[in-house]
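Minutes, project check-in

Agenda point 3 was the complex the collaborators sent over. CS summarized: two entities, 602 residues total, and the question is how they sit relative to each other. Sequences were read into the notes so everyone works from the same version.
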Amino acid sequence: MATASTICAAAQQLLSRAECEDLLYHEAALLDDWQLDEWFALFAPGATYDVPQAGAADDISSAEALFYIADDYDRLRYRVERLKSPMAHSEWPRSDTARIIGNVRVLGVNEAGVQVRCTYVCYRSKNNVTDTFIGHCLYTLIGEPGAIRIASKRVMLDVNSLRPQGRVSIIL
Amino acid sequence: MATAFAPRRKEGRWIIDDRAGGIFKVNRDAFTSQEVFEQERSRIFDRCWLFVGHGSELKKPNDYVTRNVGGREVIFNRDRKGEFHVFLNTCPHRGAMVAREKCGSALAFKCFYHGWSFNNNGKFGTRNPAGVYPDDFGKDGSVDLARVPRLESYRDFYFINYDRDAPPLETYLAGAAEILDLVADHSPNGMEIVGGVQEYSIRANWKLLVENSYDGYHAAETHETYFGYLMKTIGDFDISQIQADSMISYGFDLGNGHAMIEGKAPWGRPIGRTIPVWGEEGKEAIAKVVAELEERVGPERAARIADRDRNLGIFPNFVMNDIMAITVRTFFPTAPDQMNVNSFALAPIGESAEDRKRRLDNFLEFLGPGGFATPDDVEALESAQRGYAASKFAPWNDISRGMLKEVPRGDDESQMRAFWREWTRRMEEE
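CS then shared the predicted structure for the full assembly.
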């Protein structure tokens, strides 16, 4: 049976921090460029994407608490489809966004995959107003270097409330 | 209350209400003026009943939550004996907030500035060395936590009023009380707020969110992408059914500026309307929920609770939408063009984990800052607010739709007219 130390060693072997960083920077670039289909393709079938409420604990469950977003794979697919439509009024004309990813750490590996944490800042400008989203992300990554897929992405907002941002209509 | 005497045409500073001609206009300065914003504070928010919280937020004695209601920081709490209170969250000594966390359990509140402390029933509880203060210091209650003048509840919905002389809550609620009953009756165990408050803001005047929250007219246009998703997920829904008599929504004036639309929409309702995507398991679970309802409240009332959707607005700033899930929201202006929104999900206590999940999924698909619909409402409200900068040359909003109908529908604008008549009465009364 794998011990904690062998699991950590496995994680080191499985994905290096640099490999994780490459993926996260690539992901951020796709979102900033509104290449949403390409972004969605980073997610493995069955993957989830969720955004708990501002200030929530990392392990909170969307089965019990009210989130902002708790997408399964199908709902995420529709989120992407919707955002590509000019009828998604909140994001039409599209926002300008810039994401900065940092403090990337490979936390370990479990049966779900490699656990990765990063800090992000995301600037979103629309109608001449710029809002800033700040927080950290928790990823579960699976697959081999060069073919890494996201099995889950949880975006934590390290702010007190969505004031003044008001909405999470972009993908964070 | 229904107006006993309604002039056929009223032209005031803010509205044109031409009942004979079927025209209703609202002056856009009502959304932009600093003077209106200040008058609303004294004439509306300091006079009307304001939602402070739901009883389920304070499950045990000593529980408290802090929030801003009507521009003031308050503590909504229960004391050691379980009694409910609302205190102004400011130390009687020099003003600092005595509770600075969003929620918790506290036998006492202690100000961190100089250490004054208060029992959770508001009583001053600091011992000082002899001679520092007069012997009878505070005996008159003057250094107790200040209490919001009025606190009353209806079916576990707690409201406060900053006006000591306001009419009782139940009188004020008028026809809206019956609608709160319909939701409170969803469960034999009572209702509860689920997992936290969505706190967000909108860069628009607060009255735009009142109008939007029961605006049946905008749904198909603004929310095309939501309905597109819904049609995919609910499977073989026959779109022509939307025109069926049973689905038509109507507008109701509930008195005192409260109003509602009620009808039947194509989405699933965890309280009583299944959809194909929920499968056999969902169908059976919903049938069980409906059977319990019928048993408890009778088939007719059960059908209304289970299978009708309703968007309720209680004047001035309380919304309860009992739709694909139940959302309760309240909101306050911080400037003419800015509001803070507190939004809650309400659900039956003791609901099964599966029913709860369907409910929360339903909620998030439409509602809240990350839903497929609410962000587009926010965009519409903010867009209107920017448009109002042109009010000198484009001064009027039109909410005449359906004004000459005997029975206005949910996609008419009678519910908004009910709000604006009450708003005008309060803003113009001597």
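Noted in discussion: The mean pLDDT of chain B is 94.
Follow-up: revisit at the next meeting once the mutant set is ready.
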